[in-house]
């Protein structure tokens, strides 16, 4: 055999077969059809759809200013998402068969609309207090509990509910100030303790299914790769992410397996931006011309995408083809990037949630 089909192609063929098979199956046994009444999202900018309040332009509010959101449907306006379009939580909603992401916690205070889910995630958040004052995971879960206790979220919704816990490394900014490896390992243990504790708390509150992100390869973000002119992943971030992920898996393994699913962002990101075999690049990676160089790049390495001078002049450049860039800004994927990441995880998420549509 001379022709070798890429593994990813093979698996998508299998996926088609499986999807067809499960379609037939569900037509016969409607018991396997699942509708989730509640989608509750916790975490940081990977999942935030507009919780951080809009204020004057700064690094922490840049998601409310151009060019953020510039590929977002007809409006092409910033939506408070850290991307040119959709982010991870939007794609999770889609996998659940919804037309849109759950409303933001901020909006629930203003209107009494649909509570088929709430997004509590805030850009910049971690499990510990961060300088940006974004509420920690524990505080976000407390807000959820308050809504439950107050009847703003019905207990009935939790019987068929999904939570996403998206903690993407904001806590690790602190590692820069740590000198010993021991201290870093200790800190990783503390972070994963907090995540596992949060997951347990969500389960105790009655959430039936919890998806938990692994930490993506931190050394491959444009922020880290910039000194190499975006030619390679730099620093110790990937090692730290692996230690974090292994620790997290152990701790989540210790609790019930069938209600918690570790969403392997690390694997899905790595396949695209740092494939192990340069001679066998996965199909999902090939659509991206720029894997480490962001679409929106500040002129100053310490600046940010969206930054302007006193006269409103842009202090950044924006690419003309965001769909060919995996990264949007110095730390966040483009909408196309998220789509490619979630496409790789979709089948496993559906299997875990018994979602058949
Ligand atoms: C590191 O320490 C310095 C001096 O104490 C402090 O100003 C800075 O905020 C710290 N950085 C982080 C990321 O915690
Ligand atoms: C980890 O948590 C323990 C217990 O709360 C604390 O004593 C220790 O200082 C923490 N380690 C780091 C590096 O933050
Ligand atoms: C960085 O990469 C770009 C595009 O490949 C190239 O044009 C530029 O000369 C490089 N800069 C440096 C400093 O190597
Ligand atoms: C977690 O459990 C799975 C399934 O039992 C196992 O394959 C995996 O090695 C475990 N991971 C860790 C880090 O213990």
How does the SSE layout of this entry go?
Elements (H helix, E strand, L loop, with lengths): L6 H22 L9 E6 L44 H8 L7 E2 H4 L8 E3 L17 H13 L5 H4 L2 E6 L14 H25 L3 E5 L8 H4 L11 H18 L5 E4 L1 H9 L9 H4 L9 E3 L17 E3 L16 H19 L4
Parallel strand pairs: 1-3, 1-4, 2-3, 4-5, 5-6
Antiparallel strand pairs: 7-8
Helix pairs in contact: 2-11, 4-6, 6-8, 9-11
The site of one 2-acetamido-2-deoxy-beta-D-glucopyranose has 4 residues, from loops.
User: Strands of the largest sheet, in order across it?
Assistant: 2-3-1-4-5-6
Give the quaternary arrangement of the chains: single chain
Count of discrete alpha- or pi-helical segments spanning 4 or more residues: 11
Structural class: alpha/beta
- Helix fraction, binned, reads 25-40%
The CATH top-level class label: Alpha Beta
CA(first)-CA(last) distance: 36 Å
Q: Per CATH, what is the topology?
A: Rossmann fold
Poorly predicted runs of 5 or more residues: 1-31
Give the beta-strand count: 8
- Which kinds of small molecule does this entry bind, naming each only once? 2-acetamido-2-deoxy-beta-D-glucopyranose
CA radius of gyration: 20 Å
Mean pLDDT: 88
Topology as a string of helices (H) and strands (E): HEHEHEHHEHEHHEHHEEH
As for the number of domains, it is: 1
Report the sheet-strand fraction.
5-15%
- The CATH architecture classification is 3-Layer(aba) Sandwich
């Amino acid at each position: 055999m001379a022709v070798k089909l890429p593994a990813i192609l093979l698996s998508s063929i299998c996926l088609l077969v499986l999807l067809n098979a499960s379609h037939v199956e569900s037509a016969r046994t409607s018991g396997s059809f699942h509708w989730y009444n509640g989608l509750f999202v916790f975490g940081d900018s990977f999942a935030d759809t507009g919780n951080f309040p809009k204020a004057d332009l700064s690094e922490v509010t840049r998601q409310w200013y151009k060019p953020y959101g510039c590929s977002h449907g007809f409006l092409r306006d910033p939506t408070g998402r850290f991307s040119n379009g959709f982010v991870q939580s939007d794609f999770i909603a889609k996998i659940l068969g919804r037309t849109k992401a759950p409303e933001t916690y901020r909006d629930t205070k203003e209107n009494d609309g649909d509570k088929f889910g709430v997004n509590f995630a805030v850009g910049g958040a971690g499990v510990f207090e961060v300088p940006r004052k974004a509420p920690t995971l524990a505080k976000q879960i407390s807000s959820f509990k308050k809504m439950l206790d107050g009847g703003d979220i019905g207990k009935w919704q939790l019987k068929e509910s999904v939570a996403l816990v998206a903690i993407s490394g904001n806590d690790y900014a602190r590692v820069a100030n740590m000198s010993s490896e021991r201290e870093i390992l200790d800190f990783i243990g503390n972070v994963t303790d907090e995540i596992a504790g949060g997951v347990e708390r969500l389960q105790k509150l009655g959430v039936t299914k919890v998806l938990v992100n692994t930490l993506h390869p931190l050394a491959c973000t444009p922020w880290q790769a910039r000194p190499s002119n975006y030619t390679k992943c730099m620093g110790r971030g990937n090692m730290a992410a692996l230690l974090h992920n292994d620790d997290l898996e152990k701790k989540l393994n210790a609790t019930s397996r069938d209600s918690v699913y570790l969403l392997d962002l690390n694997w899905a990101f790595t396949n695209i931006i740092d494939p192990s075999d340069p001679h066998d690049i996965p199909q999902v990676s090939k659509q991206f011309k720029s894997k480490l160089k962001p679409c929106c790049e500040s002129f100053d390495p310490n600046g940010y995408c969206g930054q302007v001078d006193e006269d409103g002049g842009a202090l950044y450049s924006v690419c003309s083809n965001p769909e060919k860039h995996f990264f949007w800004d110095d730390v966040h994927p483009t909408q196309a990037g998220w789509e490619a990441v979630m496409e790789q995880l979709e089948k496993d998420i559906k299997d875990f949630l018994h979602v058949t549509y």
